[in-house]
């Protein structure tokens, strides 16, 4: 019994130091990498398939070392057994909009949820600064080339492990809000599947997820390079005949071209964006995102070369028949009609938006603004008209005033919802001044003029 107790104590003391630090020996891993590199540089050794297999395996070990002993959903107590105690911890750390307990390790930051399980992590260092994924794939390819029969099974197993690692890395990176890193990992996971030794089924969703995440990164961080990468992977998926069930791939690919605002081939990109949306609409006529994309591209400032936006009206109305409470679609419909200078239909559309979203100050402002633009256009027509009688002139002027008056309740509502909107206050001041001779308008003008001066002074 005494010997057994001493044996247990000995094991405990041996294990204790290891439990206090994350078990990644960078020097040892780097040394193994260097030796593996040296073997493939040796002409005699490089002629053997086993040399390349060993090189791929050692490189993968270096790549996966910091996270090989943890997984999402793992109880934190179990994670500590595998990677040791953290150097420090902090509660209620917000990551990508969620609160976690953050545990700091030498190689990563581990985020644990309220259920005390690993939710995600962020790598803070790696064994090598070099991108090891293409190195691993290349070594497996060479091993298979030298001895296809003997290497088939170990290469297939190794590639599957690499794919799973990249898939996991993409998932945790996405949960951590690292969209570009997640996109890169999904794209690389598909590259693994293209290797000759991969025996599984190619998953084109990897390309789709990568493209979507590149778009999110581009929009979040104004990263033009991500739009270019997104276009590459999504085009590759489309060329292979892949499309998601509802056709959103066309919408994301449209963003990849439309978002490249600093491109030297801007016009060609806009044409490609339009072409993709039209192709998508033909295959997925119920996809309202595609219709919204067409609305945006036709009504944008640089859409002159894309055609007549009136061709979109039938598409939009058909979409609204399917979903009459689609706020964004009504908003887009109003934009189309405004671009066509059909102010009455613009107002009808935006009133529907206001009905669906009564607390949106900007929508209230736009209704008032559309009324003012309509009234100004009517004034222009009056100035061009050759009147035969003063009564006819006054009648038309009264119609214009009626349109100006119609704008006021919406500008007032917008002011009520957002009294700090200088643009709205200026417009309210302008229209009440135009109608200053009418009963009750002068006090309104004075109110908005005062508010305008105060807001302007603060800006």
| Uncertain residue segments | 1-20
Using only C-alpha atoms, the radius of gyration works out to 32 Å
CATH class of one domain: Mainly Alpha
- CATH level-two architecture of one domain: Alpha Horseshoe
How many distinct beta strands?
Answer: 4
Our measurement of the CA-to-CA distance between the termini, rounded to an integer number of angstroms, reads: 83 Å
Largest sheet: 4 strands, antiparallel
Which bin fits the share of residues in helices?
A: 55-70%
Shape: elongated
Strand order of the biggest β-sheet: 1-2-3-4
Mean pLDDT, to the nearest integer, reads 91
Work out the strand percent. Answer: 5-15%
Here the CATH topology of one domain equals Serine Threonine Protein Phosphatase 5, Tetratricopeptide repeat
N-to-C SSE string, H for helix and E for strand: HHHHHEEEEHHHHHHHHHHHHHHH
Provide a count of the helices: 20
């Amino acid at each position: 019994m005494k010997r057994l107790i001493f044996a247990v104590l000995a094991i405990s003391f041996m294990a204790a130091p290891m439990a206090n630090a994350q078990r990644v020996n960078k020097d040892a891993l780097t040394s193994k990498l260097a030796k593996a590199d040296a073997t493939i540089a040796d002409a005699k050794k490089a002629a053997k398939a086993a040399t390349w297999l060993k090189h791929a395996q050692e490189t993968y070990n270096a790549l996966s070392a910091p996270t090989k002993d943890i997984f999402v959903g793992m109880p934190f107590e179990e994670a500590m057994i595998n990677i040791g105690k953290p150097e420090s911890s902090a509660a209620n750390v917000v990551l990508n909009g969620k609160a976690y307990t953050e545990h700091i390790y030498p190689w990563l930051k581990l985020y644990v949820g309220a259920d005390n399980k690993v939710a995600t992590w962020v790598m803070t260092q790696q064994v090598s600064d070099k991108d090891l994924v293409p190195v691993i794939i290349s070594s497996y390819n060479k091993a298979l080339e030298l001895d296809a029969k003997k290497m088939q099974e170990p290469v297939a197993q190794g590639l599957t492990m690499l794919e799973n690692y990249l898939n996991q890395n993409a998932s945790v990176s996405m949960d951590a809000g690292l969209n570009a890193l997640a996109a890169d990992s999904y794209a690389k996971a598909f590259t693994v599947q293209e290797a000759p030794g991969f025996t599984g089924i190619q998953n084109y969703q990897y390309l789709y997820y990568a493209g979507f995440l590149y778009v999110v990164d581009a929009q979040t961080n104004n990263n033009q390079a991500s739009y270019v990468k997104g276009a590459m992977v999504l085009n590759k998926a489309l060329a292979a005949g892949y499309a998601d069930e509802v056709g959103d791939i066309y919408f994301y690919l449209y963003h990849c071209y439309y978002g490249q605002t600093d491109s030297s081939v801007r016009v060609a990109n806009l044409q490609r964006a339009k072409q993709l949306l039209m192709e998508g609409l033909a295959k997925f006529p119920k996809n309202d995102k595609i219709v919204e994309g067409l609305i945006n591209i036709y009504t944008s400032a640089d859409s002159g070369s894309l055609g007549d936006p009136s061709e979109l009206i039938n598409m939009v109305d058909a979409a609204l028949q399917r979903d009459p409470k689609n706020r964004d679609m009504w908003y887009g419909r109003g934009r189309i009609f405004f671009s066509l200078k059909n102010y009455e239909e613009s107002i009808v559309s935006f009133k529907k938006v206001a009905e669906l979203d009564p607390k949106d100050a900007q929508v209230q402002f736009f209704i008032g603004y559309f009324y003012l633009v309509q009234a100004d256009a009517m004034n222009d027509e009056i100035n061009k008209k050759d009147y035969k009688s003063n009564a006819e002139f006054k009648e038309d002027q009264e119609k214009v005033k009626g349109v100006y008056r119609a704008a006021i309740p919406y500008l007032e509502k917008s002011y009520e919802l957002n009294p700090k909107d200088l643009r709205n206050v200026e417009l309210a001041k302008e229209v009440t001044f135009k109608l200053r001779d009418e009963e009750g308008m002068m006090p309104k003008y004075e109110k908005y003029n005062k508010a305008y001066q105060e807001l302007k002074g603060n800006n």
